[in-house]
Amino acid sequence: MLIGLVMLLGLPLPAIARVCVQDDASQRVCLEQPARRIIALSPGATELLFAAGAGEQLAAAVSFSDYPPAAKQLPRVGSYQRLDLEAIVALKPDLIVAWRSGNPMADVARLQDMGFPVYISEPRQFEDVSATLERFGVLAGTESAAQGAANGFRAGIAALRERYADAAPVTVFYQVWDDPLMTVNDSHLISEAIRICGGVNVFGDLDALAPRISREAVLEKNPQAIVAGGMGEDNPAWLTPWKAFPSMLAVQKGNLFFVAPSTLQRPSPQMLAGTRTLCRHLDSARARH
After folding, report:
1. End-of-domain residue from the set 97, 131, 156
2. Are 75 and 60 in contact (CB under 8 A)?
3. Residue 60 to residues 35, 49, 101, 127, 145: CA-CA distances in angstroms?
4. pLDDT band at 13; cut points 50, 70, 90
5. What is the pTM of this model?
6. Domain around 146
7. Do residues 153 and 129 lie in contact, with contact meaning Cβ atoms separated by under 8 Å?
């Protein structure tokens, strides 16, 4: 009726609320209207969408999507490594957020071929986290909440950069996994956290984003500090085996540190808290040097 009245009066039709952004694969993602049924294919994407104010638009997520608490109630569509394509298709999403370095990209391509709008996410720097929040706000129609979250994250990171700009360097081995033993290179977001805190990633020059390494390689690097995540949020068990190598600087000085993995290993606003914890640990290492 409204459209008919507008046409009768000779008025222009109202513009369709089409929204477009560019994702981390440099592809343009456009929706005819803000998304209302979003599926997140990584725990980090789930957190980012909630932080951007789009929690109510989330239709499903993958396993281990546990923050904020409301995320635990979302239907599951497999894990980030093993997507349940049938479940995803059945939910008829109007936006899918994929993780480039975590999801099977052949499955993501199949979803794109079926016509589903897919945003490919891969934050590599802290500014990328803020920018992703802003883009999700555009795609979900929650720009105000998203902008507030992005600004808060930027301000917190800027404060840490300023505080530790002249900190004495500390060599760091970051253990992202135990078996196989894995770390990150300097292109990884975790390494930016290390740099902000005045740390130097001893494996930063490796080619792979998350390379496998040997314990012998860590012993050869002899870092001043070892930082590990773990299987749980309060379980520093991965640090215990290093105590068998008392000749290592990190062991001699007691610089074996735990950071809850969800606060440093997911590209989300929680990384601000994780980076603060990391900086405090590296301050402790400096004091013992």
Report:
1. 156
2. yes
3. 13, 12, 20, 26, 21
4. very low
5. 0.87
6. 11-156
7. yes
Three-state secondary-structure class, residue 186: coil
Paired tokens of 272: 């601000």
Query: Is residue 54 situated within a structural domain?
Result: yes
Whether residues 151 and 231 share a domain: the answer is: no
Contact 203, 183 (CB under 8 A): yes
Please write the tens of the pLDDT for every residue from 178-216. 989 999 999 999 999 999 999 999 999 999 999 999 999
Taking the mean position of all CA atoms in its chain, how far away is CA 269?
8
- Contact present, 31 and 94 (Cβ < 8 Å): yes
Domain count, the chain: 2
Q: Is 242 strand, coil or helix?
A: helix
Coil, helix or strand at residue 60: strand
User: What is the number of other CB atoms lying within 10 angstroms of the CB of residue 140?
Assistant: 25
**What is the token pair recorded at 95?**
């936006």
